[in-house]
Specification:
75% of the residues lie in helices and 1% in strands. With 706 residues, it is mostly helical. The protein folds into three domains: 305 residues, no CATH class; 215 residues, Phosphate transport system protein phou homolog 2, domain 2 (Methane Monooxygenase Hydroxylase, Chain G, domain 1, Up-down Bundle), CATH 1.20.58; 164 residues. The protein has a two-stranded parallel sheet. Helix 2 packs antiparallel against helix 20 and helix 10 packs antiparallel against helix 14. It is elongated and about 95 Å long. It starts with 7 loop residues before the first helix and ends with a helix.
Length: 706
Amino acid sequence: MFFWPQTVENRAAIRTALAALAAVLLSFKFHLETPFWSGMSVVVVSNLYTGNIIDKAMLRIIGTIAGAFLGFYVAGLVANSFLLYFLSCFSIVCIGSYYYSFSINGYAYLLGALCAFLIISQVTINPQNAFFVAIWRPVEIGIGVLVSAISAYFIFPNHLKDNITIQLHDIFTDFSTGIIQLLNMLREGNPDFDLLAQNNLKLKKKLRKAVELIGAMNHELGVTKAKTDQVRALLDLFYDVSRQLQYLILISPQHSDLTIVQSLSIEPVLNAIQSDLAQLQLAFSNQEMLLELKTEAAIAELEMHVKQIQKSDEGSLFYLNPKTNTDLGAQEPAFKSNFIYAFIHFLHQVNQSLLLMHSLLSHIPLGMTAKFQVLKTQERIRTDRDVIKRSIKAGFSVILALGFWMVTNWPGGLNGIISSLVISIRKNLFEMKNVSIHRLLGCILGGGIALFSLFLIKMNLYDFILIFFLSVWGFSYFMFKLPKYSYIGLQANIALIISLAQEGGPPVYLGPPLQRLGGIVIGIVASFIVANLLWRSDVWTMLNRYLNKLYLYMGQNLKQILLAPGNQKKLHDLANLFWTSRGLIESLADEPLSAKKQGMLVELRKRFDSLVMIQATMSHILGAVNREKVEEAAQLLGCDLFFYEKEVWTAFTQHDTASGLKLSAQLNELLSEIDKKKTFSKVSDSDLRGFLAYINALNQLVLRIH
């Protein structure tokens, strides 16, 4: 019976092994001097999905060719000057590392810098060899890239479009399940908001994973740009709903709040949301015509139900509409329940997102004006001091490894230089340590298998094919199955290929694996010397710096949200910075830490959680509050809204906790006195609710100033 691998990881591992073997055998056929570059290129660009392979393969070959031209040209300029030689190497590595940090084509920049450096390095080894390397290195890498791309389409292909579709179905299902959980918790009057927060975080991680994969979908056959844009828009809408749920979780309800929610008969609304999600999911799968959604009508019935109960003089609903009691002097200030406003706004925001999904899947264009402009993350990172410092450190690390190689004449010097670059581009010492350990372990595993095979048998071509295929298959499966340790599998594959794929056929020398091991040690030592002496970036310093950056950029966003007019708002996209900070915190939580460092981690986690809540509040203001209606209500009530907004922003940017607490007291006083205004009865119910929700959101912001 024909063997057909079932799991995505096994299919990708077999494909990688077959492609790497084919690339090496082709290099043998063409009698290339270093055939291992072809096999290495296959395993380096290997991925679970076709689109990702094509994307990385294109960047690798483009970067290699550009680097070869640049390297050969610069080699001719610096051939007679050691100073120019070192300066050119330093500059090329710095520039490549700099663009690698933020450019969408960063991998091409890094490969270009690496290839240029390898060619320039020939000046100190064999100057006459520079032209040969500039021509044949791209050829060797090109063979690997071409074989990898062909195999991605024709050997056990795993298509990104299928994976994204599955992920979107999971997201639809998870959100529907979350709605059921919320309904049950509110109905039972015992909500577990910690559980909701954990589930919401899991949903966000799934959304982020899908967003990261979607960019490579266009490289797959049969995928149109329109389809990619549709999927991206759906993911953005789910992100919006997730942010609104985050704010709802932030506002912990009191017992009286739960009593009110239970009396509102919210079950039909949540059931309608669940039904609409199921219908949208079916439409996404089958591209069928959509029926009219039910949520909007259910919310309208809920609003009518609220008014009917209030007219019947049931005072518990004064939280929603205090104007039902004409005796203002006797009225209790019970209507200032932030949770109730947040919950009603959440329902309306979910309905708005469902309507947008309906429009998207029905291919009905909606004329909407963007509320704000998002500043590209690349523009922010371009001038980031940490990125510039890290690029300079990468340059010095390579120069240090290069100097050690030139002084000692160590055979694995080039491997050391490559290792120093790969390690030094990491963001902090914690990442550098993990990469170094994984790189060393992978080299020992891959090189060890190659040396053990040579020790046992006198390898012919058939032995080589069998050992090569099985080993690459095993390491690739390990790499895909355990993403946390994937770098070990990658480095094991590289060490194995360097050891076995030698010029002319099966290996006869023991030098290559030992040289690579020595080179990795050189690279690790050089990288850590520079990292500890120049702008030391330990994980605690970097995490604290990330949190400070978040607070700074959120202050700038807050100014735009509160003070910038209309659609002129320009906001920083802080998603990557949030995820980077969260990743560091989660990584540190898994490490054995001393009591002192555990205390530091607890404090940093509290700061991060506070920033998450601030971001959720800002997203709520931006997405769920109609600022025009709020300003109209404020004018009718004689409230100087601009004064409070400016004070909130000033206290936030100055880290003025005392002023924040004072401002919170003023906002609470405003809420307690608002029903005594003469113009109070002129404000409509919905406008009043929006105004109160906005004031409570401002209060949430000032309470989290730190």
